[in-house]
Amino acid sequence: MSYLKRLIGRPITTITAAAALVASFSVASRFLGVIRDHILAGSFGGGLELDIYFAAFRVPDFIYNLIVLGALSAGFIPIFSEMIKKAVIDVNGKEKIVKLANNIFNALLLLIIFLSILGILFADTLTAWVAPGFSAEAKIQTANLTRIMFLSPVFLGMSGVLGGILQSYKRFFVYSLSPVFYNLGIIFGALVLVPNFGLPGLAWGVVLGAFLHFAIQLPTIWQLGFRYKFYLNWRDKGLLQIAKMMGPRTLSLAVSQINLVAMTALATTLDSGSLAIFNFANNLQSFPLGVFGISFAVAAFPFLSENAYNMEELKARFSSTIRQILFFIVPASVLIITLRAQIVRVILGSGAFNWRDTVLTMDTLGFFALSLFAQATIPLLVRMFYARRDSWTPFYLGLISVFINIGLAYFLRQYFGVAGLALAFSIASIFNFLMLWLWLYVKVGSLDIDKIFNSSLKFIVAAMGAGLAVQILKFLIWPYINMQTFAGVFIQLIVAGGGGLSVYILLCYLFKSEELLAVLSIFKRRLPWKKTVLADQGEARGL
Fold first, then answer.
1. Cβ–Cβ < 8 Å for 363, 489
2. CA 9 to CA 515: how far, in whole Å?
3. Each residue of 130-142: pLDDT tens digit?
4. What is the per-residue DSSP string for 416-484?
5. Coil, strand or helix: which one is 33?
6. How far apart are CA 132 and CA 66, in angstroms?
7. DSSP state at residue 75
8. pTM given for the model
9. In Å, what is the CA distance from 4 to each residue of 26, 170, 173, 535?
10. d(Cα 459, Cα 350) in Å, to the nearest integer?
11. Span 8-19, pLDDT tens digits
């Protein structure tokens, strides 16, 4: 219990430790997401009902990502982190911080409430844009679910401000816990509310999850000394700074969200269930992205912001973090590609989710996995620009990538169906990654490219060995199991996947991978029965 209290209450002062914590809870959250999708797939299959649910989810999620993430990722955390550093020598520093937090909280809340009301009033029109391929009856159902789900951005908006404060203070424990409760709310909706209310029960589950996402952070915010007060000053210097930085970031997110809306719209013009298939495959590939890519980027951002103009430290932080991301994401890509049929069947293959749904999902997942390395590193690359107060460059490059994505998706869907949407997404993601990297190289200079390349080469060779081991083990175990049963497919997945992962770790160890040693070291130091020396910051940094 005392260890848990220390973990909740103290700041985490290294990127690796912060990332390990964020990643651990991301695993828990993603695992609950897998359970959620398993329940949804078993209950509804890859059919129209889930198409309606996912389409209704899109616009409220658009508002949340546009406003909340735009403000927090681009401006709030860098400015807040800077104020925290100044508060050490400023007697009134804490008071100014609390005042700014309340100002941002109230301004953001009022804006989201206003947009949510507009969304509820014009849900029919929004549905016509998002789901042009739906029948009139399906559009009515989608609009009704959309109205319910427009309550969720209000809670997620408030939660986003609290999460930004916790990240700035490096209190990653509770921040990382909130997505777990979000998924618990949705699962509650699927298991308890759907049998009583039908599809609207899923929408109310989303609202419940958003409320829990907000509520779980309140005790730690209180512990940090923050008290709510209705203070609103549109001319406040800090608020104006955040608004200024938020502009291009919001446009970047708008481009990204418009891209998802376009994919949703295109999916509704394909066979019934295509939107559900696209989302299931996207959620599966998002598991390693959330655990490794996003978690590392989130944990690294406050450190990058603090050292934005200390070039040597900035490059060192960036290099070690991106190498840690690639250490995890490269083998994940290979395992997903070689075991995609087993993954889909084990996680989604029950109840109404039939073999046709399985084939479509595994093909879509395979195309998504081709760009996992790019998708996982883009969040870190983008945050490098934000840390240096440059929000426009990611916007322009993202805009070009989205045009490529939509154009390719419109073309490829004719030949590959829903899987073509994933292939277009992967090609555009790789292009975005390359452009961000090259532009950052021009702006910042050498990014320790030699070390990153050498480490990546080790990961690639080790992952190829792992992929070969997976293929061999799949065929070796085949005669001894019944592949027509869940148990047989699950055993093949665990044995082949476990064997491939073991080969990867062994080869990385033989190659003397610094990233593997760093991971082993941080887990050793974080064991509850080990004494943790907080003053020791000399570790290989990464998430």
1. no
2. 28
3. 999 898 999 999 9
4. HTHHHHHHHHHHHHHHHHHHHHHHHHHHH---SHHHHHHHHHHHHHHHHHHHHHHHHHHHHHGGGS-TT
5. helix
6. 22
7. I
8. 0.81
9. 18, 16, 10, 20
10. 35
11. 555 665 666 666
